[in-house]
Specification:
With 256 residues, this protein is of the alpha/beta class. The protein is 36% helix and 20% strand. It has ten helices and ten strands. A five-stranded mixed beta sheet has the order 2-1-3-10-4, with helices on both faces. A five-stranded mixed beta sheet has the order 7-6-8-5-9. InterPro entries: AvModA-like_subst-bd, ModA, ModA/WtpA. This is Molybdate ABC transporter substrate-binding protein.
């Protein structure tokens, strides 16, 4: 009987422990390619399981600062992860840019031409509502405001602006007709659901800061090898190819 118990115990100990999921907080603009990135990473690390939450980078910043257990933070900017590192709740040594985003002017109304520019669309009487992401919590909303301010349109646009919690909700406002036009991420227009839908024009970057997106391992992910592993993977040629197919550019200095 004792021998059977010893053999049973040995067999239990021989079974590898199930790896706990890697908890990833990802900016909404990654919503259309994060599953592909996760699947590609799992091919290099078969025991990995990723549990991804999507939302506004500013909201994730506040949650992680207040103890949320996310282990990797994929922000739509560099500032939020940099602040987490300064606060001691993320490892600054792991902070790295993984992509550069662009903003685009988008409409579903065939009578509106986004190529005429922001001023023409905002001054068009057919545009009753104009959607942007929240400039306080969403980096793409901050970029939208910067573009409107650069063109001297921010104050005049206030009566038309509707604010989405994140870039996905902003796109939804335009898609459902709750806004006749809006500023969304170029990556969003590469999604299967929206590719080829409506008309868009990239907004000129002149005078605007690049939307450099940063990744960091949080304090909660310090002991999970897949946290650092996934960040390394984001710098690989395979991950960069996935990001490029989905409307992102490479960070400065990244190899093609």
């Amino acid at each position: 009987m004792k021998k059977i118990f010893v053999l049973l115990l040995a067999s239990i100990l021989a079974v590898p422990a199930l790896a706990r999921p890697l908890l990833v907080a990802a900016a909404s603009d990654l919503g259309y390619c994060i599953d592909e990135l996760a699947a590609a990473y799992r091919k290099t690390a078969p025991d990995a399981e990723l549990k991804v939450s999507l939302g506004a980078s500013g909201n994730f910043f506040a949650q992680i600062r207040n103890g949320a257990p996310f282990e990797v933070f994929l922000s739509a900017d560099m500032d939020y992860p940099r602040q987490l590192a300064r606060l001691g709740v993320a490892d600054g040594a792991t902070l790295a840019p993984y992509a550069v985003g662009r903003i685009a002017l988008w409409t579903l109304d065939p009578q509106l031409d986004p190529n005429k520019g922001l001023a023409a669309l905002l001054n068009d009487k057919r545009v009753r509502r104009f959607a942007i992401a929240n400039p306080v919590t969403a980096p793409y909303g901050k970029a939208a405001r910067a573009a409107l301010e650069r063109d001297g349109l921010w104050q005049a646009a206030q009566s038309k602006i509707v604010v989405g919690e994140n870039i996905a909700q902003t796109a939804q406002f335009v898609q459902t007709g709750n806004a006749q036009a809006g500023i969304i991420s170029f990556a969003t227009l590469h999604s299967t659901r929206l590719k080829g839908v409506g008309r868009y024009a990239l907004i000129a970057q002149d005078g605007l800061a690049p939307i450099e997106q940063g990744a960091i391992v949080t304090r909660a992910g310090a002991n999970n090898p897949h946290a650092a592993g996934f960040l390394r993977f984001l710098g690989s040629p395979e991950a960069r190819a996935i990001l490029a197919r989905n409307g992102f550019s490479l960070p400065a200095g990244a190899a093609e």
